[in-house]
Amino acid sequence: MDKVVQSPADAVADIGDGASLAVGGFGLCGNPMELIRALHDRAVTDLRVVSNNCGVDDWGLGILLADKRISRMTSSYVGENKEFARQFLAGELEVELTPQGTLAERLRAGGVGIPAFYTATGVGTQVADGGLPWRYHSDGSVALASPAKDTREFDGRSYVLEEAIVCDFGLVHAKVGDRHGNLVFHESARNFNPLCAMAGRVTVAEVEELVEPGELSPDEIHLPGIFVQRVVPVGAEVEKRIERRTVRARQEG
Q: 3-class SS at 225?
């Protein structure tokens, strides 16, 4: 039951070329940065990543992208990363854009064993009808487009069928974890982390604080340890970045 691994490097040692990853975080909040760094150090390539976004040019998943370690992204937001846009438009990166709520539910569904579900989101758009560019040729023409999805009516309203997401590995960041893999997240840093943990066949959680089993009240646990296979203590001093810091102008007097 003791799932503790001593270092991020050991925790990702079996992630190989071509692996699929569900990676927690929203913007730069809640990124499993120590695990991403360890994976970057291993020079693993051809990764197929599912995450809300791909970090920024020098942080988060952006460091893997910059070295062309990622071949495919499934995301809901692709802003803030110029290299992401360049690779996509140049035909170097395949991108499946998915509505944010749909992405969350696809991950959750994968974690609880639901193979697919119907949702109203995307009906009447290319999300349902197909034709969204997934990959471009270098000349800007579309090399690969999304297929049409099944649609049905329920009680007079149209819905589109979305398939669940299950990945080889899940990489997440938590505030507190115990040796059994039970996790507590800090406020908005929870975001996609529990969902990505659920969607990974093998999930690795980096935690700022490691506690012993029984120290966490069942009522405060956000994600039960059944979804986590490895726990890596990284300390509370890990660097956390803010995408855009906005402050009001100082008022005189």
A: helix
The number of angstroms, rounded, from the C-alpha of 9 to the middle of its chain's C-alpha atoms is 19
Contact (Cβ atoms closer than 8 angstroms) between residue 165 and residue 111: no
41 and 9 in contact (C-beta within 8 Å)?
A: yes
For the whole prediction, is pTM greater than 0.90? yes
Residue numbers of the domain that contains 219: 1-76+98-109+165-234
- The strand pairing partners of 135, in sequence order, are 144
Whether 120 is covered by a domain: the verdict is: no
Residue 187 lies in a domain: yes
The total number of structural domains that make up the chain = 1
Residues in the chain: 253
Say how far apart CA 129 and CA 121 lie, in whole Å: 12
51 domain-assigned: yes
Residue 230 lies in a domain: yes
Residue 91 φ then ψ, to 5°: 80, 20
Query: Tokens 């986590």 label which residue?
Result: 228
Q: What is the residue type of 147?
A: P
Q: What CATH number does residue 10 fall under?
A: 3.40.1080.10
pLDDT (0 to 100) of residue 253: 65
Tell me which residue has tokens 């102008």.
249
Residue the block writes with tokens 């999805």? 149
* Alpha carbons 207 and 168: distance in angstroms, whole number: 20
Distance separating alpha carbons of residues 28 and 25, to the nearest angstrom? 7
Whole-number Å distance between alpha carbons of 53 and 114: 24
pLDDT band at 90 (very low <50, low <70, confident <90, very high): very high
Q: Do 24 and 30 contact (CB within 8 A), yes or no?
A: yes
In whole angstroms, give the CA distance from residue 46 to residue 68.
8
Residue carrying the six token digits 């490097």: 9
